[in-house]
């Protein structure tokens, strides 16, 4: 029976049985969805597989690769590079020939501004030797151009034992600036000059043992001073550059840790002529 006060709606009438049927249908859909969902472990495995696949992809040609630079020496393959009867490296003469050829032009700064060029050739022998020693002391951790400029100012000021002692630290610092560690070298110059005046009558020692006793003078400087100032070959002057190159060329029986070790190792086999 239809009420005259109500018109028939297009919507379905909701009944209890209809609600139950809808709920049952919804549960079945949820069950089907759960059955289609993959376990977490399988998803993780797929993620790991994708990551592994990405890692194995070839790098782009534009990617930057680290370059490995060998610094001290090239490691050998278990075979010593020093195999000759007298402990000489097998190819050292060829190395030396190439080095001499490369240096035949004598056009490096040290050739024109090294310790051999920094002293006053017209000065008395004792003063010349002192100036050689001073230039070597200033050259540590300093470019040859800077050392030469400092020596030029010192010579104009008066580079003698007596003048260095009489010059105050501040003025001496202005003369040698900007050599490396110039403040420390001011102290070394004053102490060395005083020691030379007191113990060596203003001259420099004529032996390596005597030279290395002076403040600021090491084995390398001592051997160079013996060669330039006294015209005597007492040993090999090894700095960080000679130390590094000697290791890289394989001129040592085993890698050395510092220039002094390199010097001793080279002097064991390197001919004096």
TrEMBL record:
<dbReference type="GO" id="GO:0006289">
    <property type="term" value="P:nucleotide-excision repair"/>
</dbReference>
<feature type="compositionally biased region" description="Polar residues">
    <location>
        <begin position="1"/>
        <end position="29"/>
    </location>
</feature>
<feature type="domain" description="HhH-GPD">
    <location>
        <begin position="138"/>
        <end position="273"/>
    </location>
</feature>
<dbReference type="InterPro" id="IPR011257">
    <property type="entry name" value="DNA_glycosylase"/>
</dbReference>
<keyword id="KW-0326">Glycosidase</keyword>
<keyword id="KW-0234">DNA repair</keyword>
<dbReference type="InterPro" id="IPR003265">
    <property type="entry name" value="HhH-GPD_domain"/>
</dbReference>
<dbReference type="GO" id="GO:0000703">
    <property type="term" value="F:oxidized pyrimidine nucleobase lesion DNA N-glycosylase activity"/>
</dbReference>
<keyword id="KW-0004">4Fe-4S</keyword>
<dbReference type="Pfam" id="PF00730">
    <property type="entry name" value="HhH-GPD"/>
</dbReference>
<keyword id="KW-0408">Iron</keyword>
<dbReference type="GO" id="GO:0006285">
    <property type="term" value="P:base-excision repair, AP site formation"/>
</dbReference>
<feature type="compositionally biased region" description="Basic and acidic residues">
    <location>
        <begin position="69"/>
        <end position="90"/>
    </location>
</feature>
<keyword id="KW-0411">Iron-sulfur</keyword>
<dbReference type="GO" id="GO:0005634">
    <property type="term" value="C:nucleus"/>
</dbReference>
<dbReference type="InterPro" id="IPR000445">
    <property type="entry name" value="HhH_motif"/>
</dbReference>
<keyword id="KW-0378">Hydrolase</keyword>
<dbReference type="Pfam" id="PF00633">
    <property type="entry name" value="HHH"/>
</dbReference>
<dbReference type="InterPro" id="IPR004036">
    <property type="entry name" value="Endonuclease-III-like_CS2"/>
</dbReference>
<feature type="region of interest" description="Disordered">
    <location>
        <begin position="1"/>
        <end position="90"/>
    </location>
</feature>
<keyword id="KW-0456">Lyase</keyword>
<dbReference type="GO" id="GO:0003677">
    <property type="term" value="F:DNA binding"/>
</dbReference>
<dbReference type="GO" id="GO:0051539">
    <property type="term" value="F:4 iron, 4 sulfur cluster binding"/>
</dbReference>
<comment type="similarity">
    <text>Belongs to the Nth/MutY family.</text>
</comment>
<protein>
    <recommendedName>
        <fullName>DNA-(apurinic or apyrimidinic site) lyase</fullName>
        <ecNumber>4.2.99.18</ecNumber>
    </recommendedName>
</protein>
<keyword id="KW-0255">Endonuclease</keyword>
<dbReference type="InterPro" id="IPR023170">
    <property type="entry name" value="HhH_base_excis_C"/>
</dbReference>
<dbReference type="GO" id="GO:0046872">
    <property type="term" value="F:metal ion binding"/>
</dbReference>
<dbReference type="GO" id="GO:0140078">
    <property type="term" value="F:class I DNA-(apurinic or apyrimidinic site) endonuclease activity"/>
</dbReference>
<keyword id="KW-0479">Metal-binding</keyword>
<keyword id="KW-0540">Nuclease</keyword>
<keyword id="KW-0227">DNA damage</keyword>
């Amino acid at each position: 029976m239809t009420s005259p006060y109500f018109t028939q709606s297009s919507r379905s009438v909701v009944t209890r049985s209809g609600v139950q049927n809808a709920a049952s249908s919804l549960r079945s859909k949820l069950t089907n969805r759960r059955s289609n969902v993959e376990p977490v472990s399988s998803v993780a495995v797929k993620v790991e597989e994708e990551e592994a696949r990405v890692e194995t992809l070839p790098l782009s040609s534009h990617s930057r690769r680290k370059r490995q630079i060998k610094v001290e020496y090239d490691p050998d393959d278990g075979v010593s590079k020093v195999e000759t009867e007298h402990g000489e490296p097998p190819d050292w003469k060829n190395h030396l020939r190439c080095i001499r050829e490369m240096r035949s032009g004598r056009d490096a700064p040290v050739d024109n501004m090294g310790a051999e060029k920094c002293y006053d050739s017209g000065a008395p022998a004792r003063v010349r030797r002192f100036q050689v020693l001073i230039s070597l002391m200033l050259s540590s951790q300093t470019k040859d151009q800077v050392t030469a400029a400092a020596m030029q100012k010192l010579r104009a000021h008066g580079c003698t034992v007596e003048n260095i002692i009489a010059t105050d630290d501040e003025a001496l610092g202005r003369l040698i600036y900007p050599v490396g560690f110039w403040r420390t070298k001011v102290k070394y110059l004053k102490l060395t000059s005083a020691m030379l005046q007191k113990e060596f009558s203003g001259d420099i020692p004529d032996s390596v043992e005597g030279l290395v006793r002076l403040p600021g003078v090491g084995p390398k400087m001592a051997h160079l001073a013996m060669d330039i100032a006294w015209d005597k070959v007492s040993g090999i002057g090894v700095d960080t550059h000679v130390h590094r190159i000697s290791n890289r060329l394989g001129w040592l029986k085993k890698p050395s840790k510092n220039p002094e070790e390199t010097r001793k190792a080279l002097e064991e086999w390197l001919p004096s002529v």
